[in-house]
């Protein structure tokens, strides 16, 4: 059910609304990856594959974005195409940007943080994505921290990702998540994945080897901690070691004076160029795989009696 105080600016697709009302598993998906995550409209394929994997896993996909001033929870094919065609012309919308985007009637692609804010309104407990935002490299000289982390700390949802985006300071991101009391968990791994690679990240708080265990940990966490989220890191398969390429891309973007929300798409575009497109294939695969795992855990959670 849509909260009364947001009626008129938030529209929930019938399939999503019926699933939420009946307690069926729902997995939220973002739209920034559609418009900003890939060049040449390839984000559409990533979004379609993610939705297909969620359905195949027995859950209902809920891709979230802002269309003509309405927050939409559950997008149709035409809206996904629109985001892909708009590319970076679509606004990149974090939680703090939602109100302005709605009032100004813009097309807004929600980030992980923006998507989690909508999940909190609707009671959606699971989300899949590629990599979470976090603490940027060189933060001591230029403080740049994604709002994704604060939103995860404030939202009772489990976010399945391949760790933090590779352009970030992953260790600092993990430390901040610990400070925010967000459990950082590993899916069949003892360390937090580093987006394109499974190894090399900091140790996780706990390793989980089954969807039932993940669902049990989530349910217990919400009973004890209430309103905070959890991060479940899944290693990408296949992997791609691009650290030297990534360092060069980050350096070029910094030298070009790119800052804020424009950093990630600029770096990813350079990484794609420097890897001859190999990064795109890995990125698309890990997004789909993470969505599938989110669905698997959501289904296990829905079957529990202590949720």
UniProtKB/TrEMBL annotation:
Any single GO CC term annotated in Swiss-Prot or TrEMBL for this entry: cytoplasm
GO molecular function: hydrolase activity, acting on glycosyl bonds; metal ion binding; pseudouridylate synthase activity
Protein's UniProt name: Pseudouridine-5'-phosphate glycosidase
Gene3D superfamilies xrefs: Indigoidine synthase domain
Record InterPro entries: Indigdn_synthA-like, PsuG
Alphabetized PANTHER family for the sequence: CARBOHYDRATE KINASE PFKB DOMAIN-CONTAINING PROTEIN (PTHR42909:SF1), ZGC:136858 (PTHR42909)
Record keywords, A-Z: Glycosidase, Hydrolase, Lyase, Manganese, Metal-binding
Pfam families in the cross-refs: Indigoidine_A
SUPFAM superfamilies, sorted: Indigoidine synthase A-like (SSF110581)
Organism superkingdom: Bacteria
């Amino acid at each position: 059910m849509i909260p009364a105080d947001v009626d008129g600016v938030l529209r929930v697709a019938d399939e999503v609304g019926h699933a939420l009302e009946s307690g069926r598993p729902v997995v939220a998906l973002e739209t920034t990856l559609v418009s900003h995550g890939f060049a040449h409209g390839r984000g559409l394929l990533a979004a379609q594959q993610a939705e297909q994997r969620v359905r195949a896993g027995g859950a209902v996909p809920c891709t979230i974005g802002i269309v003509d001033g309405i927050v939409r929870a559950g997008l149709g094919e035409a809206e996904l195409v629109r985001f892909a065609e708009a590319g970076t012309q679509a606004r990149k919308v974090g939680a703090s940007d939602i109100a302005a985007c709605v009032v100004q009637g813009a097309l807004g692609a929600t980030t992980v943080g923006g998507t989690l804010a909508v999940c909190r309104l609707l009671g959606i407990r699971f989300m899949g994505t590629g990599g979470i935002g976090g603490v940027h490299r060189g933060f001591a000289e230029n403080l740049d921290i994604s709002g994704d982390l604060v939103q995860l700390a404030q939202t009772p949802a489990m976010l399945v990702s391949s760790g933090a985006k590779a352009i970030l300071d992953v260790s600092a991101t993990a430390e901040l998540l610990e400070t925010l009391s967000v459990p950082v968990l590993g899916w069949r791994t003892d360390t937090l994945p580093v987006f394109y690679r499974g190894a090399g990240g900091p140790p996780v708080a706990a390793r989980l080897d089954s969807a039932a265990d993940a669902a049990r940990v989530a349910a217990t966490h919400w009973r004890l901690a209430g309103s905070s989220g959890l991060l479940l890191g899944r290693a990408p398969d296949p992997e791609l070691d691009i650290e030297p390429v990534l360092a060069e891309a980050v350096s070029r973007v910094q030298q070009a004076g790119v800052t804020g929300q424009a950093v990630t798409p600029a770096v990813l575009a350079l990484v794609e160029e420097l890897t001859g497109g190999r990064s795109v294939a890995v990125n698309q695969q890990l997004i789909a795989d993470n969505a599938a795992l989110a669905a698997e855990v959501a289904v296990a959670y829905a079957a529990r009696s202590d949720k």
